[in-house]
Amino acid sequence: MALTSLWQDRHPRTSSEAGGPPVLEGEHDVVVIGGGLTGVVTALLLARAGRSVLLAEAEHLGAVTTGRSTAKVSLLQGTQYSRIAHRHPASVLRDYAEANREAQAWLVRFCEDHGVGVQHRPAYTYAHGAKGEQSLRAELDATRRAGLETEWVDDVPLPYPTRGAVLLLEQAQVDPCELLDALAREAVAHGVRILEGVRVRRVTGGGPVRVVSDQGTATADRVVVATNMPILDRGGFFARMHPSRSYGLALRTPVQPVDGMYLSADSPSRSLRDVPGLDGSSLLLVGGNGHKVGAPVSEQARIDGLREWTAQWFPDAEETHAWSAQDYVPHHALPFAGPVLPGSEQILVAGGYSKWGMTNGVAAALALTGRILGGRMAWGQVFEPWRFRELTGLLDSARLNGEVGLEMAGGWLRPVRHPGTGPALAEGEGEVRLDRPGAPSALSRVDGTERRVSAVCSHLKGVVRWNDAEKSWDCPLHGSRFGPDGEVLEGPATCGLGQR
User: Fold this and answer.
1) Which residue of 136, 167, 279, 460 shows the fewest CB atoms closer than 10 Å?
2) Global pTM?
3) H-type helices in 126-213, by residue range?
4) For residue 374, what are the contacts with CB-CB under 8 A and spacing of at least 6?
């Protein structure tokens, strides 16, 4: 089964440009890079304010994180508030909550005004065991200090044992691709030009800024890089957060399987919500089993483990879709939206949503738009990428970059065990082999075709690992991913793996 999300299957997209390949060209007030939720909302808000806007997306709108989201539009976010509280004062907690509250209200209002389906559900963060319950108590305290009307419940309406939950009523859930299509239509109606299938390679200069791709160059007074992990190495954002991959299943059920949005506070991670079926039925969405991108694990085993767990507790559910998603978790627990470098207002970046992009992504768009239009959001300092609060993540950052250093060294040593010639690969297999000193190759066989590309990531020279579920090459350093042919799939890399 192809790893296509339920949402992407329901809303297939093709390029919006007619008459040949799209061309990046022209002079604009703002160029937005990235066609996920943050990028499209930013483009729409700026166009409503009278700015000329071009949006460039490497694949198609919603191709990566947004189109693979669980799409919970929730202020209750697992254990995110206690994670923030561990590093920051109560004022930051309150501002973070207010940013998400304003973003949630904006998104729900847009859905209601434009006929996008939105379901209101209670949100639960629940515990499997004693460690999770301890985390829950801390989360309850942090959410209340943030101003959320959370409560503790002992009885959680799930078919398996739990040890209580934190509950927040009247949250929301959507179909993210239905939402993105509506946002894009509204953006185009206000004059935004959307180019799909244009991968930006670099951004240079200033006054104006040049946005360069293989399909032309455009200039702009401002550029917004809304790619979650910025594709620009300036600012070192790749060293300030780590990439996380998780998995999702959609399953047809005879009755509505759950009556809320659920997320476990402890491992193994489990996310649950219902999805209205197109025929009036109900689907179950199950997520979890996350890990660091490019980790030495079997991605297929993670998906199969999720299937086994679901079959145990929801035996009447029939799988319709399976997919994965990638998110970025910043070291200081806060998202960012602001200049790529201190004082560099011409190039702005946004990302680091810790898997809560449906609200944080919209909040980032509101913060960026206010900045470009000369205003400020009252809570905007929480999203500032160059405030002193970055120091609160230094220990985590040192640990993460220590792990990156070890992975870099280990990655270059691993191919020594595999000479350049070896047994033929079976269908669906991939292996890194050493052709000659300093030149590891990534060899794979997919759909009967054997391919050999460089095993060295084009971003910062990490050695990639084979993803046995998605038949891709994933870099364990900063989350860049490549197809068997070496083409970029996602992450900070802008160039593919070299051909061998």
Assistant:
1) 279
2) 0.92
3) 130-145, 176-189
4) none
| C-alpha dihedral (219, 223, 227, 231), degrees to nearest 10 | 70
C-alpha distances in Å from residue 346, one per residue of 31, 49, 194, 308, 343: 11, 18, 21, 50, 9
Cβ neighbours of 157 (radius 10 Å): 13
Tell me the CA end-to-end span of the chain in Å, nearest whole number.
29
Residue from 316, 298, 304, 382 nearest 91 by CA: 382
Mutual orientation of helices 357-372 and 90-113 as an angle, nearest 10°?
90
Q: Which residues contact 98 (CB under 8 A, 6 or more apart)?
A: 147, 378, 379
Instruction: Give the residues across from 472 on adjacent strands.
Output: 467
CA–CA separation, 169 and 190 (whole Å)? 35
Q: What is the dihedral of CA 354, 337, 7, 189, to 10 degrees?
A: 170
Q: What is the pLDDT of residues 62-87, one digit of tens each?
A: 999 999 999 999 999 999 999 999 99
Residues 372 and 380 sit within 8 Å (Cβ to Cβ): no
SS3 128: coil
pLDDT at 405 over 70: no
For residues 3-21, give the mean pLDDT. Answer: 79
